[in-house]
Amino acid sequence: MFKKRTSLYATLLISALASVPTNQAVAQMAKDKIADNAVAEPVIKVPANFKTTIVADGLGKARHLTVTDRGDVYVRLAKPVGGGGTVFLRDTDGDGKMDEQKSFGDFGGTGIALGDGYLYTTSSTEIFRYKLNGNQEVIDPNKPERIVTGLTDKGTHASKSVVLDKSGNIYVGIGAPSNACQVKDRTKGSPGMMPCAMLDSVGGIWQFKTNQPDQILKDGVHYATGIRNMVGMDWNGQTNSLFIMQHGRDQLNTLFPDMYTDQQSAVLPAEAMYELKKGANAGWPYTYYDQIQKKKIVAPEYGGDGKKEGSSEYIDPAAAYPGHLAPNGLLFYTGSQFPEKYRNGAFIAFHGSWNRAPEPQAGYFVVFQPFKNGKPSGDWEVFADNFAGMETVMSPGSAMHRPCGLAQGPDGSLYVADDVKGTLYKISYSK
Amino acid sequence: MNRVLRCSFVAGVMVSVFSFQSCAQTKNATQKSTSDAAKVSPTEVSMAAGKLVYNQNCLVCHQADGGGVPHLNPPLSQTDYVLGEKARLIGVVLNGLDAHEPINDEVYSNVMPAHNFLTDQQIADVLTFVRNSFENKASAVSVAEVKAERAKKK
User: Does this entry carry the keyword Signal (chain A) (predicted)?
Assistant: First the structure.
């Protein structure tokens, strides 16, 4: 026994030296804790001549939002607060702060959209719409019309984001309740299902009519498939097409330690932006996009080795970003307040990673992706940073704020919603 | 050299459990009797071994600080699952969890896979570590307790 323990100790000693977290990481966590306890609001870092103001706070788990033509804001909450899952905010005295707050709809959720005289909101299983008056105020908050029902909610990747086109259709992203379509989810050694049968009802985009009540999945058009999970989505008015941000798969190193290092697994696969035309297949779970090799790669559950190239039947992303950053908000900027370079480009709210541990986490910022002629053009840049309130996030729970939803105000300002403390930021530009 | 390695071992492995003062104390103990592992109490050894099991199998989801991931992976700090009945906790490790039941009023959506590939000793160590880290203080989990739960499953 003594001998056994001694040799165990020696093994521990060796593994401890090679293991993580490092002392440096632990020290960083201690620092994070201090930052977390401090009451001071983090100062959001934005480019020169931009200004960030907090227009509302303490809303709850604020997810997606939309702004009306007169500057009122509707925010969806993941969980209702005081019986209300959608918050209406108005600045009645013009001082830049939202001083009027009303909530309605006793169901939580993420998705929200405004168009054609209606406000659309989603739970994790249904889509509703509320008729608006001429001031874009909800006429009867207690009587929404249910337009879609019975969508899959298995807990994982259950939030439903929505986008409207210009032709009376609403697009809903239905995430797959799975990491890589293994027989046993997230279990080492469990094979990938072939084919991945769940793709008939999840892991894609469905298109429904905005004006038909109680549609179910089979009434919709299965618009695109092979997308693991998508939260950030927007309609690009220039190309007249749907763009989405995929949440890429997790745990390459956990499930395939012989194939991927911690460091590779922290940045792979890419969080990918896709332009989706009807019938598109983005390749999940069979392939993923590797932004370093700049190729589609066969997933290890499906015979991949980290290098083997994926099939050309799957579309390539329009743009690719480092792994696990969790793109929860996408917005094409069409305003004229921001300088010329921002016009028709994309803002992306990266909620921030968890699957980079033991490496430091990343994201927790808003990125700008320049576009030219409807295509990403040039490198993305961090536009707004420090939502987490610390230099390096080691553990997601310590982040003070996490950007989730994006919207554009009638004056061209950018709104960012945070789902930790329910803080609503307005970012404006003036020379 | 050996002593330096040992202290960095203790600092690296035990920092979230023991203060740096106890590092110094261990260092003193080491000075008195070099390479005398017998002087380390079973619980300390279990904690150290448990931390390694934690780093290799749990940390990616539950994070280095045991804080979990909001809405996805539950925290391990001050929860009934961790501090409550040991049989249930051992069962979670052996069988995984796909319940989506609220933990301290929050729902966590990711599946926890079964970790029945860990040995009884590894599970006893890691649960002893978890129950005495991240601001937790609870009794150790023994190999016999894990063995009993594993037998129930069969």
Answer: yes
Q: CB contact, 8 Å: A247 with chain B?
A: no
For chain B, the domain total comes to 2
* pLDDT band with cut points at 50, 70 and 90 for residue B48: very high
**Together in a domain, B72 and B145:** yes
Which residues of chain B lie closer than 8 angstroms to A25, CB-CB? 64
Classify domain A42-429 by CATH number. Answer: 2.120.10.30
- Yes or no, beta carbons of B64 and A16 under 8 Å apart: no
B96 and B133 share a domain?
A: yes
Confidence band, pLDDT 50/70/90 cuts, at residue B40? low
- Residue to test with chain B: of A5, A354, A361, most B Cβ within 10 A: A354
| Mean pLDDT across chain B | 80
Residues B12 and B47 in one domain: no
pLDDT of residue A40: 85
> Quick check: A105 contacting B, CB < 8 Å?
no
Residues B65, B120, single domain; the answer is yes
* pLDDT, tens only, B55-94: 999 999 999 999 999 999 999 999 999 999 999 999 999 9
CB A252 within 8 A of CB A268: yes
Over range A257-277, report the average pLDDT.
Answer: 97
Of B37, B73, B96, which has the smallest distance from its Cβ to A9's Cβ? Answer: B37
Q: Tell me the mean pLDDT in the region A50-76.
A: 98
Residues of B in contact with A254 (CB under 8 A): 60
* Widest CA span in chain B: 51
- Decide if B69 touches A, using CB distance below 8 A: yes
pLDDT in tens, A321-368: 999 999 999 999 999 999 999 999 999 999 999 999 999 999 999 999
pLDDT grade for B150, boundaries at 50, 70 and 90: very high
Which residues in B lie closer than 8 A to residue A155 (C-beta atoms)?
98, 100, 107, 109
Distance in Å, alpha carbon of A25 to nearest chain B alpha carbon: 9
DSSP per position, A334-387:
--SSS-GGGTT-EEEEE---STTTTSPP---EEEEE-EETTEE-S--EEEEB-S
Contact A363, A326 (CB under 8 A): yes
Q: Is B148 on the interface with A (CB under 8 A)?
A: no
Out of B12, B37, B63, name the one closest to residue A5 (CB): B37
On chain A, the residues whose CB falls within 8 A of the CB of B112 are 186
Alpha-carbon separation of residue A322 from A176, A246, A363, B62 (angstroms): 21, 12, 9, 22
What is the domain extent for residue B33? 1-37
B116's CB contacts (< 8 A; 6+ apart) are B93, B94, B95, B150, B153
Residues B120 and B52 both lie in one domain = yes
Query: For residue B100, what pLDDT band results from cuts at 50, 70 and 90?
Result: confident
Answer whether A183 touches B (CB < 8 Å): no
Residue B26 sits in the same domain as residue B45: no
Check whether residue B31 and residue B47 sit in a common domain. no
Residues B98 and B116 in one domain: yes
Over chain A, what is the mean pLDDT? 93
Q: Report whether B93 contacts B86 (CB < 8 A).
A: no
Whether the Cβ atoms of residue A126 and residue A162 lie closer than 8 Å to each other: no
What is the mean predicted confidence (pLDDT) over A205-212? 98
Which CATH number goes with the domain that contains B120?
1.10.760.10
Distance from CA of B131 to the nearest CA of A (A): 19
